[in-house]
Specification:
By secondary structure, this protein is an alpha/beta fold. It contains seven helices and 16 strands. This is DNA-binding response regulator.
Length: about 250
Amino acid sequence: MNIKTLSCIIVDDEAFSIELLSDRISSFKNLKIVKTFTNPLEALAEIGSATEIDILFIDIDMPDLSGLNLAEKVRHKVKYIIFTTAYPQFALEAFGVKAYDYLLKPIDNLKFIESIGRLITLANDSVSTANKKDDFIFIKGDLKGKYIKLMPEEIVLIYTRSHMVFIETTKGQFKTNDTIRNVESKLLPSDKRFLRVHQSNIINVDKILKIEGNTIYLDYKWEVPIGENYKKIVMEFVKEKLLNPGSANRDSTT
């Protein structure tokens, strides 16, 4: 299988941090740094007019424009965002722009290698499966003999109300007389896009915009409560995706 070369941009107001990160990126033969910026406003102008970028490595605490604000403005131009920062408190906000990872400075080399390794695998799996047509499920409809074909990537939210299960998708709403447990079991067993966050709610994690307190905000203006018994599951999911604490050996401090 041919491994895709992934284009990378680094934005950090400290040249030293860019140099350290560039050295690590250069150890991956299928990553290519196309540009680096110490000025986030220049990065905004450049990325905004460029073709799609595969990976954006971005600091958070920068003058004139924070990394979070920059990420929001260029999100549509970037496939994967990796924050590199000394500040752990912005992790949930980073999740709001669908960051792939959140690496704390000083960045632990092993964690960096593991993170990039997973990303490369994900990127190449996405390419190889882009044209697959068999990734679908059938759900019983609300009438006898009616079956609904659903594409998992189009599902935003599944929830129960008045003894019915509602499935909200990017193409509209569908109803089924089936139970939410049976609907959940029909999703691909290996498909980690779906997460039970409440006794009555299953979400597609790819559709998350942000998490605030006990509420998850999804695409299409959905607000989903986190059940008391599911808080630990949600936080473990967030930590797995975003929190990669650095080691005690410091490479950089900002």
